[in-house]
């Protein structure tokens, strides 16, 4: 059904901003697997954390769900009664395919797939909230407001999982670690042209924070504890507990 990511393989004269449109949705599993080191580990750990932290009579949120990889991992991990999963993405191309994907692997836990901006939805009775490589696309000035809303809608003892591309404040470290990521992309078959065209299209669209900024924001939003549980190069994942 889905294909190989060749979106940036030919020279593009009018390189626009990166968008989660039909073309991207069509090749997304290949694109994310070849671009994000540790992606599969993170997805399976979202399953394990869901198993540990989901509470009966609660909701699990997958914010920026794309094709629903994290939703599927969460759905498989649910053991408690009266649990509902809410998967949200503002890309119609993603939401349409996500719904088909979920229907193809039917499960007993109800999943509502919603096409909306995660900054506009209501969050309530949440025991697990996942932002798997989504916060980096939300305008920086809206990120704290979003985290405060999530914290407000969570149950005590609930977990927020935030996976992101990171920026490093020391220029030498930023250079060294982003070069390791570029080598990872080269090793996965991306050409210099593909790498540089995609990088330009992501400029001002994917805006990474430092790990310290993430931890400070969790504290500012009211979370009682947070830590980085995974890192590979400039990609990683944090947990925060209410
Ligand atoms: N404001 C927003 N509101 C809703 N959706 C948004 C917003 N901004 C971006 N998105 C959506 O967030 C997703 C980010 S991809 C997530 C991967 C997935 N979590 C995975 O586990 O496979 C990560 C990446 O491509 O690096 C896209 O589907 C956007 O449409
Ligand atoms: O490809 C990159 O360089 C990235 O930073 C990761 C990524 C993966 C999928 C969509 C957008 C960005």
Automatic annotation (TrEMBL):
Its EC number is 2.1.3.-. It is an enzyme of class 2 (transferase). It comes from the Bacteria. The keyword Transferase applies. CDD domains: AdoMet_MTases. Residues 62-158 form the Methyltransferase domain. It catalyses: prephenate + S-adenosyl-L-methionine = carboxy-S-adenosyl-L-methionine + 3-phenylpyruvate + H2O. Keywords: S-adenosyl-L-methionine, Transferase. GO terms for molecular function: transferase activity. The keyword Transferase applies. S-adenosyl-L-methionine binds at residues 39, 64-66, 89-90, 117-118, 132, 199. Catalyzes the conversion of S-adenosyl-L-methionine (SAM) to carboxy-S-adenosyl-L-methionine (Cx-SAM). Homodimer. Belongs to the class I-like SAM-binding methyltransferase superfamily. Cx-SAM synthase family. This is Carboxy-S-adenosyl-L-methionine synthase. It comes from Agarivorans aestuarii.
């Amino acid at each position: 059904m889905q294909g190989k990511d060749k979106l940036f393989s030919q020279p593009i004269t009018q390189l626009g901003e990166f968008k989660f449109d039909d073309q991207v949705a069509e090749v997304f599993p290949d694109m994310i697997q070849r671009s994000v080191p540790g992606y599969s580990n993170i997805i399976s750990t979202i399953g394990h954390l869901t198993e540990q932290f989901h509470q009966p009579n609660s909701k699990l949120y997958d914010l920026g769900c794309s094709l629903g990889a994290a939703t599927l991992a969460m759905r498989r991990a649910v053991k408690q009664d009266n649990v509902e999963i809410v998967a949200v993405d503002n890309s119609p191309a993603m939401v349409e395919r996500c719904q088909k994907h979920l229907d193809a692997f039917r499960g007993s836990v109800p999943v509502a797939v919603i096409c909306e901006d995660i900054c506009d939805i209501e969050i309530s009775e949440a025991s697990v909230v996942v932002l798997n490589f989504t916060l980096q696309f939300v305008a920086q000035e809206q990120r704290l407001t979003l985290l405060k809303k999530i914290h407000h809608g969570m149950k005590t003892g609930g977990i927020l999982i935030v996976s992101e591309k990171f920026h490093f404040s020391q220029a030498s470290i930023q250079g060294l670690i982003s070069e390791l990521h570029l080598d990872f992309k080269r090793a996965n078959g991306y050409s210099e042209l593909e790498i540089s065209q995609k990088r330009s299209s992501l400029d001002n669209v994917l805006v990474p924070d430092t790990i310290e900024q993430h931890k400070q924001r969790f504290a500012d939003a009211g979370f009682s504890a947070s830590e980085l549980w995974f890192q590979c190069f400039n990609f990683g994942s944090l947990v925060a507990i209410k």
